[in-house]
């Protein structure tokens, strides 16, 4: 049996950035690995990584001549995946279409209810469930076999039903490494207007113990965190280096949650002499200096902090569990530790957040000693607590919004208007980059960092493209 796994492009909601891929679809590559281990012939089609139009993607899948096509879905590409699934089903009505991922997990019954050409949904982690489903289909795909697939949602005589309880991966070390040879020639590394040469992702853990109200992670992982062993992570990093990669993003839901483990990984990188530049994301309340210094010494060049707001009241509304002053401290420690580039994300547009509070957050970003801010307008993402709360209060019609992630400011009467937020964000992006003292600092830092200098020289063109896209998006 042949299986084709598809990662649809994410660009349906008009984000500021183009549709080029930051990195490979690790979830899809994990699934490909477990299927191959079971003797299933499998191929991966990554629409963004291969720069494929819908028509070109369909042609690629047709050349695979699969029996099963699986789509990895987020809220941002669920509708794209459904459109592509419809085209494939028209080509081959006998083709079995399977949806998985966050979007399918949170709204699986709605997916099957709206789209009759989608055959199955798998909830939660699919590394155990998908091979069981493929085996059931090989046996004929009868209802008695299908209903035993963990996490399956299916139809029986036109009625949508839930099968066996979903089964997560207990020991991540048992999974084969993502087979990057399946996508080795794809074009990755586009992050915030910067093109990282020879770039990939790695996942050292799954899940996050926190419950930030704007995030849907808890709906998928139930606030559990599952850690790979340090040795297993280091083995994969060695494989990544052997494949010729030079830059890696640790794409964990919360990489810095375990200070001791991060330090052990960093010590292992140095002991094994793994020569990679890498990027990590972290919380400001877990910014321990010894950990950050170990990260810098082991090749960490960029850190992304989730700051989110410069107002304690808004942080508390988001249930972030951090304090404003911790952001200042975290940036100072990362700078002192020697991490080359420090960036931070911010969210504005919460219900009840005043214009003054929005401006305070934008100004707070300027005061932080960061190299680049990322400003976002609060979105109501299905699966996030904010989405559920707004639906319960009557501000969101779930049946009309489950395939989208609307900005809360676009419909909530107690938000600063969305147009005003866009104008402010554009204004402060420009002001941030044009400050004389900022430019002076950045020039000095770039001249003293070989890593930064190489990025600047190799990205002059893409940075201009990014700025044009950014200003166009927030001025619309």
UniProtKB/TrEMBL annotation:
Query: What sections of the protein cross the membrane?
Result: none
The B12-binding domain, residue ranges: 5-144
User: Is Iron included in the keywords of this UniProt record?
Assistant: yes
Query: What SUPFAM superfamilies does the record point to?
Result: Cobalamin (vitamin B12)-binding domain, Radical SAM enzymes
**One MF annotation (Gene Ontology) recorded for this entry:** 4 iron, 4 sulfur cluster binding
User: Is Hydrolase there in the keyword field?
Assistant: no
What this protein needs as a cofactor is: [4Fe-4S] cluster
Keyword annotations for this protein, in alphabetical order, are: Iron, Iron-sulfur, Metal-binding, Methyltransferase, S-adenosyl-L-methionine, Transferase
Q: Which residues form the Radical SAM core domain?
A: 194-412
Top-level taxonomic group: Archaea
Q: Which PANTHER family does this chain map to?
A: ANAEROBIC MAGNESIUM-PROTOPORPHYRIN IX MONOMETHYL ESTER CYCLASE-RELATED, BLL1977 PROTEIN
Protein name as catalogued: B12-binding domain-containing radical SAM protein
Query: What is the species listed in this Swiss-Prot or TrEMBL entry?
Result: Odinarchaeota yellowstonii (strain LCB_4)
